[in-house]
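Final report, closing paragraph on structural work. Over the funding period we assembled a curated collection of sequence-structure pairs, and we close with a single example.
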Amino acid sequence: MTLLKTERVPLPRWMKSQMPKGESYLKVKRLIADHQLNTICTSGNCPNKGECWNAGTASFMILGDKCTRNCRFCFVQNDVPDAVDWMEPLRLAKTIQTLGLKHCVITSVTRDDLADAGAGFWAATIRKIKELNPDTTIETLIPDFNAHPELINLVIDAAPDVISHNMETVRRLTPKVRSTARYDRSLRVISIISAAGIVSKSGIMVGLGELEEEVLQTMDDLRTAGCKVLTIGQYLQPASNLLPVLEYITPEVFEKYHTEGMQRGFSYVESSPLVRSSYHAEKHVKG
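Its predicted structure, as stored:
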Protein backbone atom coordinates (compact mmCIF):
# COMPACT_ATOMS: atom_id res chain seq x y z
CA MET A 1 0.00 0.00 0.00
CA THR A 2 1.33 3.45 -0.91
CA LEU A 3 0.54 6.16 1.60
CA LEU A 4 -0.25 9.74 0.67
CA LYS A 5 2.13 12.32 2.11
CA THR A 6 -0.58 13.54 4.46
CA GLU A 7 -1.23 10.10 5.91
CA ARG A 8 0.43 8.94 9.11
CA VAL A 9 0.52 5.33 10.21
CA PRO A 10 -0.76 5.20 13.81
CA LEU A 11 1.71 3.86 16.37
CA PRO A 12 0.69 0.30 17.31
CA ARG A 13 0.56 -0.88 20.91
CA TRP A 14 3.72 -3.01 20.59
CA MET A 15 5.81 0.08 19.82
CA LYS A 16 5.17 1.68 23.21
CA SER A 17 8.19 1.82 25.53
CA GLN A 18 8.66 3.00 29.12
CA MET A 19 10.21 6.37 29.88
CA PRO A 20 13.85 5.94 30.95
CA LYS A 21 14.47 6.22 34.68
CA GLY A 22 16.55 4.76 37.49
CA GLU A 23 19.68 5.69 39.45
CA SER A 24 22.13 4.18 36.94
CA TYR A 25 20.37 5.93 34.06
CA LEU A 26 20.62 9.32 35.76
CA LYS A 27 24.30 8.75 36.61
CA VAL A 28 25.15 7.99 32.97
CA LYS A 29 23.15 10.99 31.78
CA ARG A 30 24.97 13.36 34.17
CA LEU A 31 28.45 12.10 33.31
CA ILE A 32 27.85 12.30 29.57
CA ALA A 33 26.85 15.94 29.96
CA ASP A 34 29.71 16.77 32.35
CA HIS A 35 32.37 15.22 30.05
CA GLN A 36 30.94 16.82 26.88
CA LEU A 37 30.38 13.50 25.15
CA ASN A 38 27.89 12.49 22.48
CA THR A 39 25.86 9.31 22.50
CA ILE A 40 23.89 7.73 19.69
CA CYS A 41 21.38 6.85 22.43
CA THR A 42 20.34 10.51 22.52
CA SER A 43 21.35 11.67 19.02
CA GLY A 44 19.42 8.76 17.53
CA ASN A 45 16.58 9.06 20.06
CA CYS A 46 16.87 5.36 20.93
CA PRO A 47 13.86 3.90 22.79
CA ASN A 48 16.10 1.49 24.76
CA LYS A 49 18.53 3.89 26.39
CA GLY A 50 16.95 3.53 29.81
CA GLU A 51 17.24 -0.27 29.74
CA CYS A 52 20.82 -0.20 28.42
CA TRP A 53 22.13 2.51 30.74
CA ASN A 54 20.60 0.79 33.76
CA ALA A 55 22.20 -2.51 32.65
CA GLY A 56 25.70 -1.01 32.61
CA THR A 57 26.11 -0.55 28.86
CA ALA A 58 26.15 2.62 26.78
CA SER A 59 26.70 3.68 23.16
CA PHE A 60 28.95 6.67 22.58
CA MET A 61 29.38 8.69 19.39
CA ILE A 62 32.84 10.07 18.62
CA LEU A 63 34.19 12.63 16.15
CA GLY A 64 31.52 15.20 16.92
CA ASP A 65 27.80 15.40 16.27
CA LYS A 66 27.80 16.68 12.67
CA CYS A 67 27.89 14.24 9.76
CA THR A 68 29.20 14.80 6.23
CA ARG A 69 26.45 12.56 4.84
CA ASN A 70 22.74 13.21 4.77
CA CYS A 71 20.93 9.88 5.05
CA ARG A 72 17.17 10.20 4.89
CA PHE A 73 16.52 8.05 7.96
CA CYS A 74 19.03 9.61 10.36
CA PHE A 75 18.44 12.27 13.00
CA VAL A 76 22.14 13.20 13.26
CA GLN A 77 22.77 16.69 11.87
CA ASN A 78 24.26 17.02 8.38
CA ASP A 79 26.66 19.98 8.51
CA VAL A 80 30.31 20.98 8.25
CA PRO A 81 31.93 19.04 11.13
CA ASP A 82 33.87 20.68 13.93
CA ALA A 83 37.64 20.24 14.24
CA VAL A 84 38.74 16.87 15.60
CA ASP A 85 39.04 16.95 19.39
CA TRP A 86 42.03 14.76 20.28
CA MET A 87 41.20 14.97 24.00
CA GLU A 88 37.91 13.18 23.39
CA PRO A 89 39.38 9.63 23.58
CA LEU A 90 40.75 10.33 27.07
CA ARG A 91 37.49 11.91 28.27
CA LEU A 92 35.54 8.98 26.92
CA ALA A 93 37.86 6.40 28.47
CA LYS A 94 37.65 8.15 31.84
CA THR A 95 33.85 8.29 31.65
CA ILE A 96 33.67 4.56 30.95
CA GLN A 97 36.04 4.00 33.88
CA THR A 98 33.98 6.17 36.24
CA LEU A 99 30.77 4.42 35.23
CA GLY A 100 32.35 1.00 35.59
CA LEU A 101 30.78 -0.08 32.30
CA LYS A 102 30.96 -3.78 31.51
CA HIS A 103 30.47 -3.17 27.81
CA CYS A 104 30.51 -0.10 25.59
CA VAL A 105 29.51 0.54 22.01
CA ILE A 106 31.34 3.23 20.07
CA THR A 107 29.99 4.71 16.87
CA SER A 108 30.68 7.91 14.97
CA VAL A 109 29.40 10.35 12.45
CA THR A 110 30.85 9.88 8.95
CA ARG A 111 33.85 12.14 8.36
CA ASP A 112 34.44 12.19 4.61
CA ASP A 113 36.17 15.54 5.19
CA LEU A 114 39.19 13.86 6.82
CA ALA A 115 42.02 12.31 4.80
CA ASP A 116 41.66 8.98 6.63
CA ALA A 117 37.88 9.38 7.19
CA GLY A 118 38.60 9.36 10.93
CA ALA A 119 40.08 5.83 11.05
CA GLY A 120 43.18 6.96 12.95
CA PHE A 121 41.02 8.68 15.56
CA TRP A 122 38.97 5.50 15.85
CA ALA A 123 42.10 3.45 16.55
CA ALA A 124 43.35 5.95 19.15
CA THR A 125 39.96 5.92 20.90
CA ILE A 126 39.80 2.13 21.11
CA ARG A 127 43.34 1.89 22.48
CA LYS A 128 42.72 4.56 25.13
CA ILE A 129 39.52 2.84 26.27
CA LYS A 130 41.37 -0.48 26.57
CA GLU A 131 44.26 1.17 28.42
CA LEU A 132 42.02 2.59 31.16
CA ASN A 133 39.36 -0.16 31.07
CA PRO A 134 41.06 -3.51 30.41
CA ASP A 135 38.01 -5.50 31.57
CA THR A 136 35.45 -3.59 29.47
CA THR A 137 34.44 -5.21 26.20
CA ILE A 138 34.12 -2.95 23.17
CA GLU A 139 31.89 -2.99 20.11
CA THR A 140 32.63 -0.52 17.33
CA LEU A 141 29.89 0.52 14.90
CA ILE A 142 31.92 2.02 12.08
CA PRO A 143 31.12 4.01 8.93
CA ASP A 144 32.16 2.47 5.62
CA PHE A 145 35.51 4.34 5.26
CA ASN A 146 34.69 4.06 1.53
CA ALA A 147 35.66 0.37 1.91
CA HIS A 148 39.39 1.17 1.90
CA PRO A 149 41.02 -1.90 3.51
CA GLU A 150 43.93 0.07 4.96
CA LEU A 151 41.50 2.31 6.89
CA ILE A 152 39.30 -0.53 8.11
CA ASN A 153 42.45 -2.38 9.21
CA LEU A 154 43.39 0.54 11.47
CA VAL A 155 40.25 -0.26 13.47
CA ILE A 156 40.83 -4.01 13.25
CA ASP A 157 44.42 -3.67 14.51
CA ALA A 158 43.19 -1.78 17.58
CA ALA A 159 41.39 -5.05 18.44
CA PRO A 160 37.86 -4.22 19.61
CA ASP A 161 35.77 -7.27 20.49
CA VAL A 162 33.10 -6.68 17.83
CA ILE A 163 33.13 -4.57 14.67
CA SER A 164 29.74 -3.66 13.27
CA HIS A 165 28.75 -1.87 10.09
CA ASN A 166 25.08 -1.45 9.27
CA MET A 167 23.51 -2.22 5.91
CA GLU A 168 20.50 -0.19 7.16
CA THR A 169 18.13 -1.46 4.46
CA VAL A 170 17.76 -3.80 1.49
CA ARG A 171 19.54 -3.35 -1.83
CA ARG A 172 16.60 -1.79 -3.73
CA LEU A 173 15.99 0.90 -1.11
CA THR A 174 19.62 1.79 -0.40
CA PRO A 175 19.79 4.76 -2.85
CA LYS A 176 16.59 6.19 -1.37
CA VAL A 177 17.51 5.66 2.27
CA ARG A 178 21.29 6.21 2.47
CA SER A 179 23.45 9.12 1.33
CA THR A 180 26.63 8.21 -0.59
CA ALA A 181 26.72 4.70 0.89
CA ARG A 182 26.39 1.71 -1.44
CA TYR A 183 24.97 -1.74 -0.70
CA ASP A 184 27.90 -3.67 -2.18
CA ARG A 185 30.43 -1.34 -0.56
CA SER A 186 28.94 -2.12 2.84
CA LEU A 187 29.14 -5.83 2.09
CA ARG A 188 32.84 -5.38 1.28
CA VAL A 189 33.34 -3.73 4.67
CA ILE A 190 31.71 -6.71 6.39
CA SER A 191 33.86 -9.11 4.34
CA ILE A 192 37.09 -7.36 5.38
CA ILE A 193 36.09 -7.49 9.05
CA SER A 194 35.07 -11.15 8.85
CA ALA A 195 38.28 -12.17 7.08
CA ALA A 196 40.28 -10.67 9.97
CA GLY A 197 38.66 -13.07 12.44
CA ILE A 198 36.88 -10.41 14.51
CA VAL A 199 33.18 -10.82 15.26
CA SER A 200 31.35 -9.00 12.45
CA LYS A 201 27.90 -7.54 12.90
CA SER A 202 25.32 -5.62 10.88
CA GLY A 203 21.82 -4.26 11.20
CA ILE A 204 18.83 -3.27 9.11
CA MET A 205 15.61 -1.32 9.65
CA VAL A 206 12.25 -2.52 8.38
CA GLY A 207 9.03 -0.65 7.67
CA LEU A 208 10.47 1.42 4.82
CA GLY A 209 8.70 -0.48 2.06
CA GLU A 210 10.98 -3.49 1.76
CA LEU A 211 9.59 -6.89 0.79
CA GLU A 212 10.06 -9.98 2.93
CA GLU A 213 12.07 -11.72 0.22
CA GLU A 214 14.39 -8.70 0.09
CA VAL A 215 15.06 -8.97 3.82
CA LEU A 216 15.87 -12.65 3.41
CA GLN A 217 18.19 -11.86 0.49
CA THR A 218 20.01 -9.30 2.64
CA MET A 219 20.49 -12.02 5.25
CA ASP A 220 21.97 -14.30 2.61
CA ASP A 221 24.27 -11.55 1.35
CA LEU A 222 25.50 -10.85 4.87
CA ARG A 223 26.15 -14.50 5.61
CA THR A 224 28.11 -14.81 2.35
CA ALA A 225 30.21 -11.88 3.60
CA GLY A 226 30.84 -13.75 6.86
CA CYS A 227 28.59 -11.69 9.12
CA LYS A 228 28.02 -13.33 12.52
CA VAL A 229 25.48 -11.07 14.25
CA LEU A 230 22.37 -9.39 12.83
CA THR A 231 19.96 -6.85 14.31
CA ILE A 232 16.54 -6.08 12.81
CA GLY A 233 14.35 -3.31 14.17
CA GLN A 234 11.40 -1.13 13.24
CA TYR A 235 12.22 2.14 11.50
CA LEU A 236 10.77 5.15 13.30
CA GLN A 237 10.64 8.55 11.63
CA PRO A 238 12.82 10.79 13.85
CA ALA A 239 11.76 14.09 12.23
CA SER A 240 9.09 15.26 9.79
CA ASN A 241 11.64 15.99 7.05
CA LEU A 242 12.91 12.41 7.04
CA LEU A 243 11.46 9.30 5.43
CA PRO A 244 7.99 8.34 6.69
CA VAL A 245 7.16 4.97 8.15
CA LEU A 246 5.32 2.97 5.48
CA GLU A 247 4.45 0.02 7.70
CA TYR A 248 4.73 -1.14 11.29
CA ILE A 249 5.98 -4.69 11.13
CA THR A 250 4.21 -7.04 13.54
CA PRO A 251 6.04 -8.94 16.29
CA GLU A 252 5.12 -12.17 14.50
CA VAL A 253 7.06 -11.14 11.39
CA PHE A 254 10.03 -10.10 13.52
CA GLU A 255 9.97 -13.55 15.12
CA LYS A 256 9.92 -15.11 11.67
CA TYR A 257 12.98 -13.05 10.70
CA HIS A 258 14.72 -14.27 13.86
CA THR A 259 14.02 -17.88 12.93
CA GLU A 260 15.11 -17.38 9.33
CA GLY A 261 18.32 -15.69 10.43
CA MET A 262 19.28 -18.40 12.88
CA GLN A 263 18.58 -21.05 10.26
CA ARG A 264 20.98 -19.24 7.94
CA GLY A 265 23.79 -19.57 10.45
CA PHE A 266 23.99 -16.24 12.28
CA SER A 267 25.32 -16.66 15.82
CA TYR A 268 22.88 -14.06 17.14
CA VAL A 269 19.80 -12.43 15.63
CA GLU A 270 18.14 -9.62 17.59
CA SER A 271 14.82 -9.10 15.83
CA SER A 272 11.94 -7.22 17.39
CA PRO A 273 10.21 -3.85 16.96
CA LEU A 274 12.32 -1.84 19.41
CA VAL A 275 15.69 -3.42 18.56
CA ARG A 276 18.48 -1.03 17.63
CA SER A 277 22.08 -1.73 16.61
CA SER A 278 23.46 -1.78 20.15
CA TYR A 279 20.55 -3.65 21.75
CA HIS A 280 21.90 -6.49 23.95
CA ALA A 281 25.31 -5.78 22.41
CA GLU A 282 27.12 -7.23 25.42
CA LYS A 283 25.84 -10.68 24.43
CA HIS A 284 27.41 -10.52 20.98
CA VAL A 285 31.06 -10.43 22.04
CA LYS A 286 31.39 -14.21 21.83
CA GLY A 287 30.14 -14.15 18.25
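The domain at 21-286 is CATH 3.20.20.70 (TIM Barrel). Residues 1-6 have pLDDT under 50 and may be disordered. We thank the funder for supporting this effort.
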